[in-house]
Amino acid sequence: MRATLMYGAGDVRVETVADPVIQEPTDAIVRIVAGCICGSDLWPYASRKDTDEGSRMGHEFVGVIEELGSETTDLAIGDFVIVPFVVSDGTCDFCREGLQTSCRHGGHWGGDQDGGQGERARVPQASGTVVVVPVGFDEKLIPSLLSLSDVMSTGYHAAKKAQIEAGQTVAVIGDGAVGLSAVIAAKLMGATRIILMGRHEARTDLGREFGATDVVAERGDEAIARVLELTDGDGAHAVLEAVGLRPALETAIAIVRDGGVISRVGVPQFTEVPIGRREFMRNITLTGGVAPARAYIDELLPLVLDGTIEPGKVFDRTIGIDEVPAGYKAMADREALKVLIRP
Fold this sequence. Notes:
The protein has helices at residues 42-47, 93-96, 126-129, 142-147, 151-162, 177-188, 201-210, 220-230, 246-255, 277-281, 293-305, 324-332; strands spanning 2-8, 11-16, 28-36, 55-56, 61-68, 80-83, 86-87, 107-108, 120-123, 131-132, 169-173, 193-197, 214-216, 236-241, 256-264, 285-288, 317-320, 339-342.
């Protein structure tokens, strides 16, 4: 089969690899109907050291079950499934608590394992990992179903951890796919003012469609001043940080209301958090983390199926498997927001 491998910074190749096979009785083999390139894939695309053996790529996909191990349950060959970006058994204490990202028997896609940017994948712990989509869904929903495997669930996680309440003002930092998904989530939770901080007009226009009431295109001190102006000097009740860079967190600290919450879901590219005595005295809460997508898909899937939300609109380019290297470049060059792959 064909699959994507990364050999170094800017070096993405699509190669022929061995077809996946059942290795454990809890496995499933899924034929990938749609995968995608994630913003987090761009970090190694920009900085990965060269290697002789490429790493398999992709951690978001949907597809059809073709084979099942003997110990899988509640699954059938032919099921259309959403595959979250983390493997989980569904039975350990963390999974039962809704924190599948800490599953005691979990795992991750890619590396020397199958990834989502290919034609097929072996799914370990299949019964605890995948979510079956009810039969009869509209094929046009595939992009939105795919978004639940990561970006929509991650944006939702940002809003859930911020404990947004109806009537609050929320600021979202970042106009990428996760930030736009966070706008959807903030609206779902009843925020009446949603300030989207981003400077790419096509993306912020989509953010307005998703529910953003204001757009702040400035950066740095100008951006901070603009948000404070919009909030009568108080700042936002919740700030959802979807970038992962230190300046984004510094902005979040500057624009959050005293007693407010900063929820960070952008993968941090730094280690020191600039919160000291002054921030302590403001009673700011810092939360967030990696999203347990498997916990949220059950909540979000009905909203996609009935048309309440359409997060699949974040995909603005669709490519075939052999075009994946060009898809990486398009996202890295900001020519595409999020690229969908149809093997």
